[in-house]
Design a protein that fits this description.
single chain, alpha+beta, Alpha-Beta Plaits, 6 strands
Length: 115
Amino acid sequence: MKYIVAVIQPTRLEAVKEALSRIESFRLTVTDVEGIGRQKGHTEVYRGHEYKINFISKVKLEIAVDDKYVEPVVDAIASAARTGKEGQIGDGKIFILPLEDAMRIRTRERGAEAL
């Protein structure tokens, strides 16, 4: 089993959800997050004052999958989260982590059956 964590632009969330639905991957946890990477923030003007925004709003997706679904899920996220043909800085990252075990609380099923 693997634990997939993706950090993407909020504007790409619906496209990613649709891409995951097409490959029949419906289990997903979504969290609003802020972070900084190569974009290094930006400045905004509010009521005549300029403010430096150090953290950029992003969306974090978390998906636990059986090993055979890792590549389809990663490909779906990468394709849908990319902006334009070649992508841009800030499109996000995908992390694939080993998942030692999982348990469904209701039935106490363990491992891949719990996913």
